[in-house]
């Protein structure tokens, strides 16, 4: 699904990613862990095409398509979804308007029929209920007045409605209490499918108690220095990154 080969990237002229290579197969869930400043969020922004993040060499393909040749909105239409560590507020734009506009924009770019009002409402109601968001909340401006947990649930609703091929979730567990963490984790598991892959970026092992990844990778100084199974997260929780980063 996602193939990253020898990726180098800079931010404000400073090298952050230094030869990162990663392969995520169809239907797989991978997790990236690492110390602060390792390049985890930079990787997510590079994949999404955020301005100011310059790829100097390497390649990235999504389902065989050259991701780096696409603008940010084209990457979204190609099936990439980025879940932010700190979801932004959009005053004046309701969740319903935002999501229907985004869904139909992506469908148009793929040459698909737009969702009718009835089709969209059926879809959004089902997903909102699954993630514990009321219709009243969906009528409110995007994330405005939402708690941290509500913002993350809202983002999971967005992901469910857009149904991406590849979801990159940047510290989705950040700031969540245990109940919100379980709801978000249950949602990630519910959306697992043979044609959908997920990359979880996290500092902590606790999310991986609920979402068991196929592989875990340790990112240090812009490169993956070690990979392993779910047991690797427990080792990192116990021993930290000092020996690995040395």
Automatic annotation (TrEMBL):
Q: Does ATP-binding show up as a keyword for this record?
A: yes
Q: Which keywords does this Swiss-Prot/TrEMBL entry list? A: ATP-binding, Nucleotide-binding
Superkingdom, natural source: Bacteria
Annotated PROSITE patterns: ABC_TRANSPORTER_1, ABC_TRANSPORTER_2
Gene Ontology molecular function, alphabetical: ATP binding; ATP hydrolysis activity
The chain positions of domain ABC transporter read 2-246
Q: Which family does it belong to?
A: Belongs to the ABC transporter superfamily. Ycf16 family.
Q: Which NCBIfam families match?
A: sufC
Write the protein's name: Fe-S cluster assembly ATPase SufC
What organism is the protein native to? Glacieibacterium arshaanense
């Amino acid at each position: 699904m996602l193939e990253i080969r020898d990726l180098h990237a800079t931010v404000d002229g400073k090298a952050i990613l230094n030869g990162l290579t990663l392969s995520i197969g169809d239907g797989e869930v991978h997790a990236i862990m690492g110390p602060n400043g390792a390049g985890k969020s930079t990787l997510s922004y590079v994949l999404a095409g955020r301005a100011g993040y310059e790829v100097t060499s390497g390649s990235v393909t999504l389902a065989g398509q050259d991701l780096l040749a696409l603008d940010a909105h084209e990457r979204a239409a190609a099936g990439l979804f980025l879940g932010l560590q700190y979801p932004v507020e959009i005053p004046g734009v309701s969740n319903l308007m935002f999501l229907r506009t985004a869904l139909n924009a992506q469908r148009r770019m793929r040459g698909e029929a737009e969702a009718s009002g009835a089709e969209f409402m059926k879809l959004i109601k089902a997903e909102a209920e699954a993630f514990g968001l009321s219709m009243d909340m969906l009528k409110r401006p995007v994330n405005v007045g939402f708690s941290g947990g509500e913002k993350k649930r809202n983002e999971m609703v967005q992901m469910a409605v857009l149904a991406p091929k590849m979801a990159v979730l940047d510290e989705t567990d950040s700031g969540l209490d245990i109940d919100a963490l379980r709801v978000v984790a249950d949602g990630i598991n519910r959306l697992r499918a043979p044609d959908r892959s997920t990359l979880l970026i996290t500092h902590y092992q606790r999310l991986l108690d609920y979402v068991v990844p196929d592989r875990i990778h340790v990112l240090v100084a812009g490169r993956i220095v070690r990979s392993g199974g779910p047991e690797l997260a427990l080792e990192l929780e116990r021993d930290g990154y000092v020996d690995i980063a040395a």
